[in-house]
Design goal:
By secondary structure, the chain is an all-alpha fold. It has a single domain, classed as Up-down Bundle (Growth Hormone, Chain: A). Helix content is 83%, strand content 0%. It has 17 helices and no strands. Helix 4 runs antiparallel to helix 9 and helix 13 runs antiparallel to helix 14. The longest helix is centred in the middle third of the chain and has 30 residues.
């Protein structure tokens, strides 16, 4: 790999540590804070889901504007750095002991920074490598992100599990674990800050009016292209389940009363399993058409969603963790590389901001519906039952998108 490709992949190694923390230690920490305030398990899961939903709304609003602005020459890196700093500083702030409400507010700010940074990071793919390497490098980013994030996670996990053995309180131990992740995230970002150069951009001078005009043109272009439009609709639904599982896995397991230490180790296994399978999907993309591989991952997630509804034991959660690890990297990496192939290189920021709206909108819908149905049915399984429906709709729309694509070729 080139220096640019390695630098780009390292950011995935860095931000994946924050993603893993969101999926594991943060929900447990919040559960401790909520329990101390006499918040029930059902409401704890719902509040966590509502917060994730609010974050997606914020990013969905500001993302397209920033994404469109980043398409102008030399604008992508400054905006990217700003979002990274918001995320990292927010993560550092979470290390300070606080009330459960304040924790949710600062967590939301940090996650807005993290989620926004991914818009620009994803769109950088066209600048750091060639089109024939999109699938391979995109898959490598997720693969090394999964395995690399295990390093700070293991350190944090040891602190969380044995804080009392080294003379720390629960709050101090959690704070130290969170601080490790914040430092890791920023350090892994430095190579990309040094080596990235924006090669594909709009040549006109930027201003707010032109930014909105550019965004409007992007929306019109997408609406006029059924292949792109239907794919984005399909992506909206199938990625809904993927992101919701990522955001709420530990919260769901905790609400079911499963042992927290085993939940953390199971999710570590997910990261380890995801590494070789993400590499495998990158390799298979050279042998098979990408849409076939994407279809396989969506069908697999449909089965995973159905299985999750009936999850009620530690063993079930372990099986779920392994299954998610097998297909998580493939569905994310191939969706990213496929979309960048059908996007104009000089407008990747705008196009990925629209794709991010679909992803964040889906994540909002997923976490919101899980939260609502959990409270309506007074059952965590009742909330999770909405996920297989989303995967099924996504699979049908994906089939339509492929049909339109093949029909256009013929």
């Amino acid at each position: 790999m080139t220096k640019k490709e390695k630098s780009w992949i390292l950011y995935d190694v860095g931000n994946s540590a924050f993603t893993l923390m969101i999926s594991t230690i943060f929900p447990i920490y919040f559960n401790g804070l909520a329990s101390a305030a006499n918040i029930s398990e059902t409401n704890y899961l719902a509040y966590w889901g509502y917060t994730a939903s609010i974050v997606t709304i914020i990013v969905a609003v500001i993302g397209p504007i920033l994404g469109s602005l980043s398409d102008y020459n030399k604008f992508k890196m400054p905006i990217f750095l700003t979002t990274v700093l918001i995320g990292v500083i927010g993560c550092v702030a979470l290390a300070i002991p606080m009330s459960w409400i304040l924790f949710l507010v600062i967590f939301a700010i940090a996650k807005v920074g993290y989620s926004s940074s991914l818009i620009f990071y994803d769109s950088m793919l066209s600048d750091i490598t060639t089109e024939d390497r999109f699938d391979k490098i995109s898959s490598a980013g997720y693969a090394y992100g999964y395995i690399g994030s295990c390093i700070p996670f293991l350190i944090s996990l040891l602190i969380v599990l044995f804080y009392d053995k080294i003379g720390l309180s629960f709050e101090v131990g959690m704070g130290l674990a969170i601080g490790v992740v914040a430092v890791w995230w920023f350090v892994m970002t430095i190579p990309l800050l040094k080596n990235y150069k924006q090669n594909n951009s709009l040549s006109i001078k930027p201003n707010i009016k032109k930014t909105f005009v550019n965004l409007g043109k992007t929306l019109v272009d997408i609406v006029k292209n059924p292949k792109v439009l239907v794919f984005l609709l399909a992506f909206f639904f199938y990625i809904d389940g993927v992101y919701t599982i990522i955001d709420m896995a530990t919260a769901y397991g905790t609400a079911l009363g499963l042992q927290q230490e085993m939940l953390l180790i199971a999710l570590l296994v997910t990261q380890i399993v995801a590494f070789p399978f993400a590499i495998l999907f990158g390799y298979l993309s050279k042998k098979f058409r990408v849409y076939i591989l994407l279809g396989i991952t969506i069908v697999a997630y449909l089965g995973i969603g159905i299985y999750a509804v009936f999850l009620d034991s530690q063993l079930d959660f372990w099986i779920l963790a392994v299954l998610v690890g097998m297909f998580q990297g493939g569905v994310q990496a191939l969706s990213r590389s496929y979309f960048i192939k059908i996007s104009p290189k000089e407008k990747t920021g705008s196009y990925f901001s629209i794709m991010d709206i679909c992803g964040k909108g889906a994540s909002f819908l997923g976490t919101f519906l899980v939260s609502v149905f959990t409270q309506i049915t007074n059952s965590t399984s009742g909330g999770i039952a909405v996920l297989p429906v989303m995967f099924a709709i996504g699979l049908i729309l994906f089939g339509v998108a492929i049909y339109l694509n093949e029909k256009k070729k013929n």
